[in-house]
Amino acid sequence: MTEASAPIDGDGRVTDATPATAATRPATPLWLAVTIAVLFGVLYAYDVWEAVRDLVGMSLMVGDLGVSFAGIGLGLLIAALVVPLLVFALAFWLGRHRGPVVQVVLFLTGYAVVQAITLDLAALFELGGIDFS
């Protein structure tokens, strides 16, 4: 940078434009970020556990009845298992370099999305899936 293009302060002196003068985001301490992720991870893990329970329970019920499992039903149960994992990973990835409040908001929003999708998948499963006929 030449002296002609360098920033000048009110006294006419050349100032050094360093990143220290730029606005910086507050960094979340590692222990706080891990604590937030673990606390919300327990909520997401409960949904995953519910999906595993539903998948295993329905598979056992289908086996006891001697009928076959419909493809759409199996797909819905697997989707209910995968959705919480993907949403948690997305919330974690989006909040990794943000402040703690933003991380909490991302995890809460993701959890609300997971609950809405899980409820929709459960309603679809109870209605017998999607009828394309």
Task: Give a structural overview.
Keywords: Membrane, Transmembrane, Transmembrane helix. The chain crosses the membrane at residues 30-49, 69-94, 101-125. The chain has 133 residues and is mostly helical. The protein has a domain at 43-126. The protein contains three helices and no strands. The protein has helices at residues 30-65, 71-94, 100-126. Helix 1 runs parallel beside helix 3 (100-126). It is elongated. The mean pLDDT is 82.
Architecture blueprint of SSEs:
Blueprint: H1 30-65, H2 71-94, H3 100-126
Helix pairs in contact: 1-2, 1-3, 2-3
Keywords: Membrane, Transmembrane, Transmembrane helix
Transmembrane segments: 30-49, 69-94, 101-125
Mean pLDDT: 82
Based on CA atoms alone, the radius of gyration comes out at 25 Å
Global structural class: mainly alpha
Number of strands: 0
The span between the termini is 70 Å
Q: Could you provide a short overview of the structure?
A:
The chain crosses the membrane at residues 30-49, 69-94, 101-125. By secondary structure, the protein is mainly α.
Task: Pick out its properties.
133 residues; mainly alpha; 3 helices; elongated; membrane
